Amino acid sequence: MLITNKDVIQSYILTTARYDFSVYEKRVMYRLVEMAQSDMEGKKLNKDYTINKTLFDDRIITMPISAFLNGEKDKNYSRIKKALDDLESKVIYYEDDRIWEKLRIIQKPKVEKYQSTVKFEVQPKIWEAIFSFSKGFRKFELKTAMSFESVYSMRFYELFSGQKTPIIYSIENLKIMFQIQNKYKLVANFINRVIIPAKKELDKLSPYSFSYELIKEGRKITAVRFFPYLIPKNRDEDLEVKELKKQISPSWYLDKMIIDYLKQNFLFTTKEINNNIDLFKEVSSKLDLMLLLSDLKAKNGIVKNIKGYVIGTLKKQLKLHQMTLDEAIEQAEKQNLSAQEEKEAIKELKINLK
After folding, report:
1. How far apart are alpha carbons 195 and 192 in whole angstroms?
2. Parallel, antiparallel, or unpaired for β 59-64 and 117-122?
3. Which of 101, 99, 103 is nearest to 124 (CA)?
4. pTM of the entire structure?
């Protein structure tokens, strides 16, 4: 399955939590974050992805196995099973000024072999942690995050995505965050096996990377000061355009009357209008958008998802409009030709029967 790229937002709590995941476990988590974000924004999920809530507020997650694979050639289904098994036995430790907490990542993983789907449960506090914005958030490109081969690249990518100012982490805290306290006893080994390889992969694939300097106390290296920087050529151009459009008021493209109508009658937010600005703009340039919207207003209260219905109807109307006059004439000629051929065939059949 080819991964459609999008900017994914992950809470800073989850970004800086203490855990030790494999690459495939991280990919499972990325998909979980992606689904949670769509659920939070009220977006309709792809039919292969579902989120159901139990009486105890747990989420039952279903998604295809292919969602965790890195491109069409990656067929490591056995690794997905292992990742689910490992995730089920692992926990996230979270600690702040008030609490220390131990959270199990997923529960009851199950693989439906004939459907090639994965199902598991997520407890409420994990779900809340994904999008708890009390400590800010990090935004990263899903396609980039899924492409990394090193879990350390993934972790540093999350930490530095969108970061503009230098940040200091002690060696001890980094090892605790990555849950590798018992590995790389020598600081030089930690730098050579963790930091340098991650930097190389970020420089190659990521729009965000870093330079660094070592901080010493006496002769001992105790911390690292990281200097995040942007690599524009590695940024997804389509996402960059979308990001710029979101920063511009929808009134730049649409008449204020239409914007107000969308907000008052269909409860669209400014963000939702911006997310669909290309569609609204194109319909407005080719059709009478206000007339279409006024016709759709009657469906409000009847249709369950009125916003989705509006978007879907506008797309259909645009598609109908895009049939050019030449195409319409050509289609009519084909229909006439077929009718004429049918008449000739009947005439010939009658002659043969005589």
Report:
1. 6
2. antiparallel
3. 103
4. 0.47
